[in-house]
Amino acid sequence: MVEQIRKKLNDSAAMRWTALCMVAFVMLCGYVLTDVMNPLKPLLENELNWTSSEFGIFTSAYGWFNVFLLMLIFGGLILDRMGVRFTGLASSIVMVIGCAIKYAAIAGYIGNMHDKIAGIHTMVLYASLGYAVFGVGVETAGITVSKIIVKWFKGKEMALAMGMEMATARIGTMLAMAITVPIANAFHSVSAPILMCLILLCIGFISMFIYTFMDRKLDAQLAEEQETEDPFKFSDIIPIISNRGFWLIAILCVLFYSAVFPFLKYAADLMVQKYGVDPEFAGLIPSLLPLGTLFLTPLFGYVYDRIGKGATIMIIGAFMLICVHAVFAIPFINNWVVAVVLTIVLGIAFSLVPSAMWPSVPKIIPEKQLGTAYSLIFWVQNWGLMGVPLLIGIVLDNYCKLPTKGLHTAVAYDYTIPMLIFTSFGVLALIFALLLKREDKKKHYGLEDANIKK
Fold first, then answer.
1. Residue 402: beta bridge partners?
2. What angle do CA 267, 277, 29 make, to 5 degrees?
3. CA–CA separation, 368 and 373 (whole Å)
4. Cα–chain-centroid distance for residue 422?
5. Which of 55, 89, 320, 371 could serve as a FRET partner for 230 with CA atoms 20 to 30 Å apart?
6. Cα angle: 112, vertex 96, 137; to 5 degrees
7. pLDDT in tens, 324-363
8. Would you list the DSSP string of 145-175?
9. What is the pLDDT of residues 356-398, one digit of tens each?
10. Whole-angstrom Cα distance, residue 277 to residue 285?
């Protein structure tokens, strides 16, 4: 009888990796829309008369509802109470709705660049609202997928699985950076890439729907084990937020991601402004970053699974982040080859930290509280994802404008100050990575231990 209980669906490598593929594809579709507007910044300025501040407002909208309306925290609570099937499907639908609103705005069906509401052009405002709705869906989907991976891979190749999921999602970022401008030019429409994203997200919803049948079968097999566990209670939030290790990893997360994702929002424009790359191809260099993570994140996850050293991996990644942004900030280093090398190194750093950070959370927080814990970390992260792009846009408009000097853009900027801002986030991330390693030694979380138990 005991032997029969142990042979569950997730004991089959084929079944658990199939489940991972289905939910990882959902995140790939979500990340395409997350980053699809990044390479379009020069086109938005040239063709739709957006400013850098308006682009900053739009990119900051990703976190509006998650941060101020606490939607991400509610999503985590719903996840722990209702389970991954309900939350996964609901978040997929929300992503589709948000994308549809965003497409309608950029395509000119709602809003324009003549009328204003609260001082914001209605096209920018409606596109931002759509992006904010989408942000609720994709962030909730992210914590749901994280809990799904723990559910299927705990005690197995968990860090590798999380690395594979992140790598798959980065394919979405790579596609957004590489093909967005060519698609916009081919269809003579800035909104064409967003329509492509809408179609992808509908396919992603179908993938999540199919996954629910596998999850239902696994739950049936786990039912006897789950009966012995205490169910999640809202009071379980208290031990999470009173855990010092949780806050160290949450702050490390927001600092690290604030130095990477907002940078990617402006990376294509940086290639045009500082390195003189043609706007149609400017997204290709930043696309090397997610391309590198495609291979390296699973590799580092494999190392963490078998060797450990999770806290050390995070420290190394944070240090590399500092070096990359510091060199990007040096004004006279403006050869595009250097930009390529720096982007590749940044991709390595971006593989190191997440590959160790996310699999470390289940070592600090009990599984029944993981949905809420991940949602709280993502909520903290969203403060950075919301505030930093807006800050960079304002800094560019007010302190960094230059004469165009024949560049392929209507407005020229000096990116030295923004890159110094990103460097400072890297420095702070390194400090908190060191504090996390010290805390691990005191509390014995096992961050330096291998995930696979021999």
1. 412
2. 45
3. 10
4. 17
5. 89
6. 105
7. 999 999 988 888 899 889 998 998 888 888 888 888 888 8
8. HHHHHHHHHTTSSHHHHHHHHHHHHHHHHHH
9. 888 888 888 887 777 788 888 888 888 988 889 889 988 988 8
10. 9
For residues 364 and 443, give the distance between their C-alpha atoms in angstroms, rounded to a whole number: 9
Model confidence pLDDT, tens digit, residues 85-144: 999 999 999 999 999 999 999 998 998 989 999 889 999 999 999 999 999 999 999 989
Residue 154 backbone class (left: φ over 0; alpha: ψ -120 to 50; beta: rest): beta
For residue 180, give both structure tokens: 């967005």
What are the residue ranges of helices labelled H in 187-243? Answer: 192-226, 237-241
With 50 as the cut, is the pLDDT of residue 51 above it? yes
In contact, 48 and 123? CB cutoff 8 Å: yes
Nearest to 51 by CA among 107, 123, 108, 103: 123
Please name the helix (run of DSSP H) or strand (run of DSSP E) that holds residue 384, with its range, or none: helix 370-399
- Under 8 Å between Cβ of 128 and 270: no
- Determine the longest span between alpha carbons in the chain, in angstroms: 77
Sign, CA torsion 201/357/348/37 = positive
**Token pair 């979380």: residue:** 445
Contacts of 151 (CB under 8 A, 6+ apart): 10, 84, 218
HSE-CB at 100 with a 13 A cutoff on CA atoms is 8
What value, to the nearest 5°, has the Cα angle with vertex 118 and ends 117 and 124? 55
